[in-house]
Structure formats: structure tokens, C-alpha cells
């Protein structure tokens, strides 16, 4: 048996002053079940359970207390029954050799609606025999129960006598018998409290059962639990005695000595991990919640630290622990505890716990909120462990508030607390603490912090310092991470489903946490990574908080949002029983939607714009097709969504053609009537008045709202026989983004006839005129640069550079390299307003493996502003920037390929403002300005393309994004010609992963292609050259190009390589062959069809990002011809580009290693060939 490692020093030793409890040893010599033997002998006066019992006559009140000796006698009596029953099936257990997992004793299922003490006795007695108890949730379906019994080799199943459990058991056993081989499980009655309590055995000492208990192996299986089964059948989880012993230590990693206090767990079921944790804490933990200074400690103490690690090891900086995307929160070696905790021998770090429970009865007491609160009062519980629904029910009655305030802590878990209710309770002085844990890992959050959070921060928790955690950043979210727990010498997760960068096993929780905006040591639950709804627009919706708003509607039993891969979200609502109806009844459907609409409007006020719900997107569940629920009482999200896939598809089909049908079209499409109709359509969707020339998208119109405006116009136009709608472009709202432009577009349809006025040549000419007008608007009237006498002397000769867009991948590399240059005295990093700027920048550096230390080195000044505003929105900082900068690198730009050129106008205005900033410098030489343009401006240029300006706007028409880049180029180049500005336009091509670690954004098409290749079992071959540049090389080249005399440069690799360099290396690394591109696309299309037919496109898309880009791969990339770009001037201007090595197999291997490290790519396929076929 391996030793049981324990830190030499524990942060918060427990049970220091408990007169009735002598802590048992903690050296691995006793397992948790064996500690009940120990406590019965060494701690006979210490309580274990307390419950309200009017007949008890306790001197302390109407309660009964069960101490360890009686609890041990009940365990022994239960064990005698279980052992005698097992002897009849011992032969069958022996026959399972080689089938069941090694180290798994006889598996005994428990399917019971049972009181806590009886259930406790069943669990501990079974474990003490060396058997493996398997508590099964009573909320499972018969098929789910049968699946678990079969998978875990259960030989006997103990069932409670209530009709519901007998029926559930009978149906599950019948399903088992019908399987191949006819699996047989013996069904037995559970052992109940009345059979084992001391009162039933009084005067029968001679008949006390004698059971021989053997020594338990620390590395054997102690217990089985199971997952919630939210996506499929629940899965068994094996928990060892070593894990249980580790779990008993968890409160010692909190900040408070919890001694001699009752923990109210009246409503915590023992078939749930939260209940099991309570049981195993009893042998070692006595709760006394807070020291006498508790009342004074309610004020929040904020200890700001640059470290993300818990306070037990502040000397280690998290940002430097992992030079890769995850943020690592690391457990220190044992010696690191020395400075933070009083020494205590490992064998002494134990205490005990009193559990407040309901009185044992048959049937057991149903834990309603009223009964639970009464039980808390009767048992004088000081701390509660419960799900939020109880707290939310109590708060509705003001008379319950004093009782809640008298509790030293309410620890809630299992679901999010309603924000409004939590805020209310915190303001009233109720101490709320979130508890986050999982069967796979036990506790994640610290239990319990020493300080009660501030009124507005009750949702946040600290991570328990016994864990080493890697936080995986989420694309497009600066402060959202997936929690990942690493296997360490002190802790091993019960499930290993991934690998850390250094090769250690990890458990990826799929739970998302959000970092506190100011305190990096605190977090709150955000949602599930696998619940995130990625719309077809690339925007994400976190459904959890939004659904929580809906379920508080009195008409709603449950709500599940959907929309993954779609253009907009919808919600599926199961009404409460009294409001159920047939949703095919259109009148009643409309009535129900109106009833819940106030709650939906509250949701829309809370939700980001892209997550808003429209009334038409409310789907109501059919009472003949009820939701399935998990043991936690939450809907089985993916099971329900799959069950309702036909209804969801029909809803999207109906909404696709839907519009504001009650908005009547004009009687005649005159100019005035048309404009008024468009104004009404726009303002009803945006819910505010706009000027006729206001750009809809600058005013906040999103893609969903644009669709509703479009559909409203189409509905009106369909009523006219004069307009043919089949040829209308899908994006005509984007192309005509003002009320005036949209009205004019409609009028052209009537005047142009059947072709809808959509003559491509005329449209291109109109766009070119718009481009010319924008350039004229922002490239005229430049001021003349005037040097101020003495300015050069007052300023250092060192470089001072302003960089925009530094939280992206290229921008982060630019900032890191600038800050590391000895010649650079200061760098102003200017980004858009948003969450904590420092945290965003730090996260970007961590994500791309850059040195976070340079951010604190004194050179970097982080700024937020708006380039389109006067003085860049910088306020007083503007003058400091203006008088000190020697160079500007403009790297920030909006990436949205749906928008038309007019919607990019604020960005073009920002370019002009940067030109004005440079020309207003008091230095003798105005700062150089470098603009990172894009090769998308070359969309219509003949190959090869020289490094020269494009004079004619007609040559760039086609994509609003590329058009906007050309307009910015033109403003800069004209400023160079007319005002003497030193300007560099650099057209940047595809950037690959950096040379050191291969960091490459997993949301781009190349990683999506390789992930798809891993799933499809083939990498595509293509006949083309690629000229991708590693992002760190690109950053170096841009810094060298700044101030170059060459006005236009192309940043692509001067040494292109064949596609086969990438495909062959990827084939080898992924362990799959290469195939022709057309064959690969056919495989992808087949996978896409199969996923859609199976209703699993949302799950499949997580494993195969290529499914979301199937049209891109099949159409655009398949027909794309690579354009050859000249680089002669670029290599003269940038030595780093000139000397860059051609891409090779080593680069591909680094990219793949990086994507594997962040969990995007699975390991290589075993046994797959790497050759071509």
C-alpha cells in the first residue's frame, strides 16, 4: 500500500478545544469506515447526530442525541444483516472475477427513500465489511437504474418499502432480465432505524450480532457514486478509501476552526456527493463556526495580491507558473505551509462533527422548506448545507428572516442562488457562502473563509488551497475560465479525463468560473462549458443565469434555452402542472407567452444583446412529453433538447419567414410612405427613435435585429406583385444601414422591376463612390506638423510607442516585444473600454505564453479609450501621449464580415484621429504611424500583387471589412503625401502559431481543419503554397517596419512552402492518413449530415469544429486560388522576416501540442496509419 502523504503543516487545524473529542490518527492506518470504530472507543461522549424528538426528553430540549457508541452499534447490527444476505450470493460475486474492476469488493446497491440515520448506517456498514455500497438516486428513470446496476456488477439491491421505489426497482430489474444473458439482481428490504436503534435491543445483549471486520485496504474502492446523467445515462464514479481520507481533511484548508457546532443537513440526500461529504466529515470534524470576533468580521477585508494562488503560498506568482494558456493555481510543497499555519503532527489533524437531521421515520420526513426551517431551529443548527431553493422559499416570509440571520453561515450548493434574493439576504445581514464541488473532485471552494463577503460579493468563493488548478481561458471572454483540477501527491481526482501541459492527469470539470474583477483570488460560478450556446454569429450565450430568471416565474416549472449553431436563441418552457396545455392550441400558446413575457423582458434586460429572446422563440412543452430530470432536480438538458428536436426545427423554420406581420405596408410606395414604413420597422425592433441618417449598427443593431427588420420588409414587399424577391441579397439591411438608405433601396426595387435593382455593376459603382466619399471626408484638411522649440530637449531620445489592440494575439506579442526592448522607454497600450484592463492584458499574456512580468516592469501604461472620439477618449492622458510618443502602431480593428463599409466609419474616423495625434506632436519629427491592414484588400487584384497603393476604389469592392481597411490605408497614404506624415501600411496575411510554443487561436480555420481531420481520420491534401508567418516573427517584423521609408509592405512569408509540409506533419502527429481535398470535404459533409440527423450537432460540433465551417471548406476554400504577393520591400525593411526560416514539420508539431494542451485536440489515434491513401 502506498503511503498517505499529508502536509507537515495544515493551514487551519480543527477541533483545538473540544473536550469530548480526541482526534483520531491521520497517517493512513485507519480508513474512514474504521474511524467509526475508533471514535466509539476513544470518543464515547461525543455526539454524532441530533434530531428533534418530542418524546426524547433531553435536558437540552425536545431533541435526541446519538453518540458514537450507539452509532457504532447500529453500524454493526446493519453489517450483520448485509453480511448474512451476501453469503447467499458469494458464489456469484466470485464468478465476476476478471469482469469487475480490480479492487472492487461485492457491490451493494441502495435505492431507497430513507431517513438520514438509516441511510448512514447502510453506507458505513457496507463499507466496513469491505463491500462497495452504491447509493443510487431515486430520481433516475428505470432505464437509468438498470444501466447503472449492469455497469457496476451489483449483486444485491436494497430498496425502501414505499410504492414509488418498489415500482422503480421492479421496472429496472425487468429491463435487466430482458438483456442478453438475463442479468439477475437480488432485491432486499433496507435495514431501518427501528430495527437497529438501541431501544430495539434493550435487554438483548446476549443476542448482539457478532461480525468479524477485517482490515480495509486504503487503495481499494470504498464507494460508488454516479453522475447526474444530464446528457445521457448516468455514469458510475469509483471513489477509493484514500480519496475519502483526503476529503476528511478539506475543512482544515479553510480559514476557520470549525468546532462543536451542529451542521443542519436535514435536506441533503445521501445518494448525492454533498451528503457523502457530510458523512465522512463526521469522523474528523467538529463544527464551531466563527471566533468571538465574528460580528466584527462581517466587513470585507480585501487583500489585493498579484498572485492567483490561495494565501497559503503567496510567494509563488500564478502567472509565471504556466507559460501557456491555462492560469495555474498550484498547491505548494509541504514546507510552504510553515509560514501560514501552526505546526501540528499529521496524526493529530482530526476532530468531529454533529449532524442535525430529521427524526427517523417511515416514510421519511419530506424536507419541505417549512419543515427544514423547523428542524434547524429544533436542533439549534449553526451552519446549513442546502440547495438554494430552500433559502429562496424562506425569504418569501419576513418572519423567517430572524432565524436566517441567527445562523452563522448558510452554505448553498447544487445550483445558483437567485441574484436578487441573494442581494436582499446579504443586505439583511444573512451570511451566505457558495460551495462548489463535484463527485469527481470533492470540494473545490474553500470551506469556510474567515470573512463574510461584502454585501455585493456573496457569490464569490476562494479555491481550496489543497488543490492545484489550471484555469483554461475561454475564447472571447477576458474573465471566464474552465476549472481543471490537477493530480498531485496530496490529491487525485476520482476521474481523470485530460492531461496537463507537464503530462500529469487532470479532471476537466466543464464548469466555467468567473474571476472577481478586483480580487484575483476569488471566483464565482458562471455556467457549464458544454451548456454554452455558440450562435452561428460566433457569439456565446450562457443559459444558466437566464434560465434562473425564467424559473422564478409562477407559471414556469423549468426552462431550457437552445440555439447552438443557430442565428438566434430560443427557450423551451415546461409550464407548472396547473398551467399545462396543448401547445398546438395557438390561442392558448399566445396566452401563455403573454403570461411569461414580463419574465422574459426581465431576462432581456439582464442578457447581452445577442442573447435576447423574442416572443416567437418561446417553445412550450407538451404535457404528453414531459421533461426528464437529474437527481439534482434539474432538467436533463441535452436529453430534453434531443427529444424536442423536431419542434425546435419547426420553430426555426416558422421564424425564418416571420416578421412584424401586424405592421401594415404603405398603401402606395411613395418616397414619404416608404421612409415612414422603414422608420416604424426599425424603431419597433430597436425600441427607440433614430435619425434618418443614423447607422443602425453604430446605434447597437445586432444581427438578430437586422433579421427582424429584413423579414418585416420582405413581408410587406410580398404583398406587391411588382417586386421579385428571389434575387434580393440576404444582407440588404447591412448594405443599406440607415433608414434613408433602406427606404431608397426599396424604392429602387419598384423602379427597377424584376431584377430588383440589384445590378451588380451598379451596386459596385455605388460602393466605390461611398468609399471615395469616406476617404475624402477623413483625408482632407490635415494640419501641418509644427515642432515646439525645446520639446526635443525636454523629451528623452528613447522610443515611446502607442499600440492599439494589445489584448489580441498579435497585439500581445507586439506589446511584449516592445516592453522587452532596451531602446523603448515607455509603451502606451490602448484598448477599448471593458472589464478590468489589467486583467484582460494579463490574461492575454498568459494565454500566449508571454512574460507577464513586463507588465509590472514600469514601461507599460495601460489605457482605455475610443479612437473615434475627440482626443481618443483619453481625457487628460491625451496630452501626455501626444507630447511623448515617437511611434504609433494601429493594430485594433473590428472583425465582422457581415457589415457594410458605412458601418466601419467610426474606425476610419479613428485612423484620422491618430493621424492628427501624430501631426500634433511637439517633437521635431512627427511620430511614425504603422497600420496593420489586411490582404483582404487584395481580393480583386491580379496576381502577383506588388507592394503598392491601390488607387481605384472599384478594385477593392466586395467585402465591407476589406473595403474599410482600404479606406484606412488611403487616409494614411494621403496624409503621408500631403502632410509629410511618416506612414507605413502593412498588409498582414495568415499568422500561424509562435515558434516557441505554437500558440494559435483555436477558433481559426486551420485548427478547425486539423481537429476535423482528427475526428474524420484523414488530413486533406491540397495543391497550393502557403506563406503563413509565425505570430512572434510577424510582431518583430512590424516593429522593424515602423518608420520604414517604404509606404506599403506585405507581411507574408518570403519562403512559401507546399501544403504537403503541413498535411504530412499533421498526418504523422495525429496518426491519420492524408486524402485528396475533395474526399476530405465529402467526409466532413457526411459527418455534418449524420450529426444533424442524430440531433447531436451541438455535441458533435464541440468535438469537430469543422462542422461549423463545412460551407467554408466546401465552397470558399475549395475554390480559392492563392494570390502571390510581392515581399521585396518587406524583407528589406524587416530583417526578422528576411531571415525567417520556412515553416516545417516542427512548427506543425508545436501547433498540435499547443491545441492538445488546451484540450482542443485529442491525442493521436492509436493504430492509425500516417501514410497517404
From TrEMBL:
The entry's keywords: Phosphopantetheine, Phosphoprotein
Highest taxon, organism lineage: Eukaryota
Keyword Phosphoprotein included in the entry's annotation: yes
Disordered, as annotated region: 1-24
Composition-biased stretches (Pro residues): 1-10
Entry GO MF terms: phosphopantetheine binding
Residues in Polyketide synthase-like phosphopantetheine-binding domain copies: 675-750
InterPro entries: ACP-like_sf (IPR036736), Adenylate-forming_Reductase (IPR051414), AMP-binding_CS (IPR020845), AMP-dep_synth/lig_dom (IPR000873), ANL_N_sf (IPR042099), FAR_NAD-bd (IPR013120), NAD(P)-bd_dom_sf (IPR036291), PKS_PP-bd (IPR020806)
Protein name (record): Polyketide synthase-like phosphopantetheine-binding domain-containing protein
Organism of provenance: Heterobasidion irregulare (strain TC 32-1)
Lineage: Eukaryota, Fungi, Dikarya, Basidiomycota, Agaricomycotina
Amino acid at each position: 500500500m502506498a503511503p498517505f502523504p499529508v502536509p507537515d503543516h495544515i493551514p487551519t487545524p480543527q477541533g483545538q478545544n473540544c473536550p469530548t473529542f480526541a482526534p483520531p490518527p491521520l497517517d493512513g492506518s485507519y480508513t474512514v469506515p474504521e474511524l467509526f470504530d475508533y471514535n466509539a472507543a476513544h470518543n464515547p461522549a461525543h455526539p454524532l447526530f441530533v434530531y428533534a424528538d418530542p418524546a426524547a426528553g433531553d435536558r437540552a430540549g425536545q431533541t435526541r442525541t446519538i453518540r458514537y457508541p450507539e452509532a457504532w452499534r447500529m453500524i454493526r447490527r446493519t453489517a450483520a444483516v448485509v453480511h448474512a444476505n451476501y453469503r447467499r450470493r458469494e458464489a456469484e460475486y466470485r464468478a465476476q472475477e476478471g469482469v469487475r474492476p480490480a479492487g472492487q469488493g461485492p457491490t451493494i446497491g441502495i435505492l431507497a427513500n430513507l431517513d438520514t440515520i438509516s441511510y448512514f448506517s447502510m453506507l458505513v456498514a457496507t463499507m466496513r465489511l469491505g463491500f462497495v455500497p452504491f447509493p443510487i438516486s431515486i430520481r433516475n428513470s428505470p432505464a437509468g437504474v438498470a444501466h447503472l446496476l449492469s455497469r457496476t456488477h451489483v449483486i444485491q439491491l436494497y430498496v425502501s418499502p414505499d410504492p414509488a421505489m418498489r415500482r422503480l426497482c421492479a421496472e429496472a430489474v425487468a429491463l435487466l432480465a430482458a438483456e442478453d444473458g438475463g442479468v439477475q439482481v437480488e432485491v432486499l428490504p433496507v435495514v431501518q432505524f427501528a430495527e437497529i436503534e438501541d431501544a430495539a435491543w434493550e435487554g438483548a445483549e446476549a443476542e448482539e450480532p457478532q461480525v468479524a471486520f477485517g482490515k480495509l485496504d486504503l487503495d481499494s474502492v470504498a464507494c460508488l457514486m454516479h453522475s447526474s446523467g444530464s446528457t445521457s445515462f448516468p455514469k458510475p464514479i469509483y471513489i477509493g478509501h484514500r480519496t475519502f481520507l483526503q476529503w476528511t481533511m478539506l475543512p482544515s484548508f479553510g480559514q476557520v476552526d470549525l468546532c462543536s457546532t451542529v451542521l443542519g443537513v436535514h435536506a441533503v440526500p445521501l445518494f448525492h456527493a454533498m451528503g457523502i461529504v457530510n458523512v465522512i466529515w463526521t469522523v474528523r470534524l467538529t463544527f464551531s463556526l466563527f471566533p468571538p470576533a465574528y460580528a466584527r468580521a462581517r466587513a470585507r477585508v480585501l487583500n489585493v495580491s498579484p498572485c492567483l494562488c490561495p494565501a497559503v503560498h503567496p510567494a509563488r506568482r500564478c502567472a509565471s507558473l504556466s507559460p501557456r494558456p491555462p492560469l495555474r493555481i498550484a498547491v505548494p510543497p509541504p514546507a510552504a505551509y510553515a509560514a501560514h499555519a501552526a505546526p501540528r503532527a499529521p496524526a493529530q489533524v482530526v476532530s468531529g462533527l454533529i449532524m442535525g437531521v430529521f427524526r427517523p421515520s417511515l416514510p421519511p420526513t419530506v424536507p419541505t422548506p417549512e419543515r427544514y426551517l423547523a428542524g434547524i431551529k429544533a436542533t439549534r443548527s449553526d451552519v446549513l448545507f442546502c440547495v438554494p431553493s430552500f433559502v429562496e422559499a424562506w425569504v418569501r416570509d419576513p418572519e423567517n428572516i430572524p432565524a436566517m440571520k441567527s445562523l452563522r453561515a448558510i452554505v448553498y450548493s447544487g445550483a445558483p442562488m437567485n441574484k436578487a434574493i441573494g442581494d436582499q439576504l446579504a443586505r439583511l445581514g444573512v451570511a451566505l457562502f457558495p460551495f462548489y464541488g463535484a463527485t469527481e473532485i470533492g470540494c473545490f471552494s474553500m470551506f469556510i473563509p474567515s470573512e463574510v463577503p461584502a454585501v455585493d460579493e456573496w457569490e464569490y468563493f476562494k479555491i481550496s488551497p489543497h488543490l492545484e488548478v489550471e484555469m483554461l481561458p475561454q475564447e472571447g471572454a477576458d474573465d471566464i475560465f474552465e476549472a481543471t483540477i490537477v493530480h498531485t501527491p496530496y490529491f487525485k481526482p476520482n476521474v481523470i479525463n485530460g492531461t496537463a501541459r507537464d503530462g500529469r492527469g487532470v479532471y476537466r470539470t466543464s464548469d466555467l468560473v468567473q474571476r472577481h474583477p478586483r480580487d484575483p483570488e476569488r471566483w464565482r460560478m458562471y455556467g457549464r462549458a458544454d451548456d454554452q450556446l455558440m450562435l452561428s454569429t460566433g457569439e456565446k450565450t450562457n443559459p444558466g443565469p437566464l434560465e434562473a430568471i425564467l424559473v422564478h416565474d409562477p407559471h414556469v416549472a423549468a426552462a431550457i434555452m437552445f440555439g447552438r449553431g443557430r442565428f438566434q436563441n430560443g427557450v423551451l418552457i415546461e409550464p407548472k402542472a396547473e398551467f399545462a396545455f396543448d401547445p398546438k392550441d395557438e390561442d392558448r400558446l399566445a396566452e401563455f407567452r403573454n403570461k411569461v413575457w414580463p419574465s422574459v423582458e426581465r431576462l432581456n434586460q439582464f442578457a447581452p444583446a445577442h442573447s435576447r429572446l423574442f416572443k416567437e422563440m418561446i417553445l412550450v412543452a407538451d404535457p404528453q412529453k414531459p421533461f426528464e430530470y437529474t437527481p439534482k432536480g434539474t432538467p436533463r438538458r441535452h436529453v430534453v433538447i434531443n427529444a424536442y428536436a423536431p419542434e425546435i426545427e419547426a420553430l426555426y423554420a416558422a421564424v425564418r419567414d416571420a416578421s412584424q406581420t401586424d405592421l401594415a405596408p404603405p398603401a402606395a410606395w411613395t418616397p414619404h410612405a416608404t421612409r415612414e414604413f422603414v422608420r416604424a420597422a426599425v424603431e419597433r425592433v430597436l425600441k427607440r427613435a433614430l435619425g434618418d441618417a443614423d447607422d443602425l449598427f453604430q446605434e447597437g443593431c445586432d444581427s438578430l435585429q437586422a433579421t427582424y427588420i429584413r423579414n418585416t420588409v420582405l413581408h410587406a414587399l410580398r404583398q406587391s406583385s411588382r417586386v421579385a424577391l428571389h434575387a434580393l441579397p440576404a444582407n440588404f439591411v447591412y448594405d443599406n444601414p440607415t433608414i434613408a438608405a433602406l427606404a431608397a433601396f426599396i424604392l429602387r426595387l419598384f423602379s427597377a422591376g424584376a431584377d430588383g435593382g440589384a445590378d451588380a455593376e451598379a451596386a459596385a459603382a455605388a460602393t466605390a463612390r461611398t468609399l471615395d466619399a469616406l476617404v475624402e471626408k477623413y483625408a482632407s484638411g490635415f494640419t501641418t506638423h509644427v515642432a515646439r522649440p525645446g520639446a526635443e530637449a525636454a523629451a528623452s531620445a528613447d522610443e515611446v510607442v502607442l499600440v492599439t489592440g494589445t489584448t489580441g494575439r498579435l497585439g500581445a506579442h507586439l506589446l511584449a516585444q516592445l516592453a522587452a526592448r532596451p531602446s523603448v522607454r515607455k509603451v502606451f497600450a490602448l484598448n477599448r473600454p471593458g472589464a478590468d484592463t489589467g486583467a484582460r492584458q494579463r490574461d492575454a499574456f498568459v494565454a500566449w505564453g508571454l512574460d507577464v512580468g513586463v507588465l509590472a516592469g514600469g514601461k507599460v501604461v495601460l489605457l482605455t479609450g475610443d479612437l473615434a472620439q475627440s482626443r481618443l477618449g483619453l481625457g487628460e492622458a491625451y496630452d501626455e501621449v501626444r507630447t511623448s510618443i515617437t511611434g504609433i502602431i494601429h493594430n485594433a480593428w473590428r472583425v465582422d464580415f457581415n457589415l457594410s463599409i458605412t458601418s466601419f466609419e467610426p474606425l476610419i474616423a479613428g485612423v484620422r484621429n491618430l493621424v492628427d495625434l501624430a501631426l500634433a506632436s511637439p517633437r521635431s519629427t512627427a511620430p511614425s504611424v504603422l497600420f496593420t491592414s489586411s490582404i483582404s484588400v487584395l481580393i480583386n487584384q491580379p496576381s502577383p500583387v506588388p507592394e503598392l497603393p491601390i488607387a481605384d476604389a472599384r478594385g477593392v469592392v466586395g467585402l465591407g471589412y476589406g473595403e474599410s481597411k482600404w479606406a484606412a490605408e488611403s487616409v494614411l497614404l494621403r496624409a503621408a503625401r500631403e502632410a509629410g506624415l511618416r506612414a507605413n501600411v502593412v498588409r498582414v496575411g495568415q499568422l500561424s502559431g509562435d515558434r516557441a510554443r505554437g500558440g494559435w487561436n483555436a477558433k481559426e480555420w486551420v485548427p478547425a481543419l486539423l481537429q476535423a481531420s482528427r475526428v474524420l481520420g484523414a488530413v486533406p491534401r491540397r495543391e497550393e503554397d502557403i506563406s503563413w508567418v509565425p505570430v512572434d516573427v510577424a510582431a518583430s517584423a512590424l516593429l522593424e517596419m515602423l518608420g520604414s521609408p517604404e509606404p506599403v509592405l506585405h507581411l507574408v512569408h518570403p519562403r512559401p512552402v507546399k501544403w504537403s509540409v503541413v498535411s504530412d506533419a499533421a498526418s504523422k502527429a495525429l496518426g491519420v492518413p492524408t486524402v485528396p481535398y475533395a474526399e476530405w470535404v465529402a467526409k466532413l459533409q457526411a459527418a455534418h449530415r449524420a450529426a444533424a440527423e442524430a440531433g447531436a450537432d451541438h455535441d458533435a460540433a464541440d468535438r469537430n469544429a469543422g462542422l461549423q465551417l463545412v460551407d467554408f471548406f466546401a465552397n470558399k476554400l475549395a475554390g480559392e486560388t492563392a494570390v502571390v504577393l510581392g515581399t521585396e520591400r518587406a524583407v528589406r525593411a524587416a530583417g526578422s522576416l528576411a531571415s525567417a526560416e520556412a515553416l516545417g514539420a516542427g512548427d506543425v508539431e508545436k501547433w498540435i501540442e499547443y491545441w492538445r494542451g488546451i484540450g482542443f485536440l485529442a491525442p493521436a489515434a492509436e493504430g492509425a496509419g500516417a501514410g497517404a491513401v
